[in-house]
Amino acid sequence: MIINIRSEKTSDYTNIANVTYEAFLGWHPDNQYVSEPVLVDLLRHNSCFNPELSLVAEIDNEIAGYALFSPYKFIVQGNEAMGAVLAPVAVHPKYQGKGIGGKLVEEGHSRLKEMGYSFSLLCGHETYYPRFGYKTKMFAVNGTIVDFIDGEINCQQYSLRPVSQKDLPWVINMWYERHKADHLALFPGENISEWHNHGIGARASIIEKDKRIIGYIRYDNYSFNVKELLADNENVCEILKYLAAKKYGKPKGELNTLLSYDYLYSLLKNDINIDIRDNSTTHTAFMIKVLKEDTIIDDYCRKVENSIVKPGIVVFPPMFDIDDGRAD
Questions:
Q1: Which of 49, 100, 161, 290 is buried most, with the most CB atoms less than 10 Å from its CB?
Q2: pLDDT by 10-residue block (mean), the chain, 328 residues
Q3: Cα–Cα distances in Å, from 243 out to 95, 147, 188?
Q4: DSSP SS3 for 114
């Protein structure tokens, strides 16, 4: 059996979607909706998308597998670095168990190294990807619980609206101010498609107070879990309080956030009506493959492995929200 790995072509899009659907259908036994084919389409809108990193595996001129490495700019220990997110890797069920997924992953790594990328990051099966050099427990996808014990807020002063193109310079500048010193952070990109919501269960909004922009916020529209909050320090507390009021009818109760404990503690430590708790945990599924030794990401991984620094909190771009609101 000859397996040919090559870059995707636009004429492959339908077959890639078909293979991705079939590959992931078994992963969604309680829900008929398979989000991965749509995710692939959305990730092609990524500012840094490179079709040379969108790989198909052919057998007898039939597409048997697919892997997408999406390039992103990251902050790593306060420095900019280029890495890639690997998602998805899909092999048609009739071709599974033949090493096709591994060949796609290895070819992707080889191309990334040639292009100068220093690492690949993924959420995946903890017994499969380490064989390709992925280190487990390298980042977190949750952060801090904020519990409002008591408080008052005039919700009539605030409003949420969709983020627009004209907001991007402000939003991007706020992102860099917020994340410039992070251990690990993923920059969504320069396009509006990388900042607005893509799922009915998700929200990516500009929040205004008295018709003046005070923040950008991404949150789950059902649980109100906060994924991203970009605002001047003096506005963070009132934005969270407003969201708690939307959830509970008053600014009293818990909000789960992907904001770091250290960041929120520095802002809220003196407020006796707010309790904050570190909820940051990692998992063996959260992995990084170092492609270049003696780089800033290599140093970061060693420090995480030796508990010198906490794993950074990775907030994936809004296109990854497309299956939010699915039945649990």
A1: 100
A2: 95 98 80 87 95 97 97 98 97 96 98 98 96 97 92 92 97 97 96 90 94 96 94 96 93 94 94 93 95 96 97 95 60
A3: 47, 12, 23
A4: helix
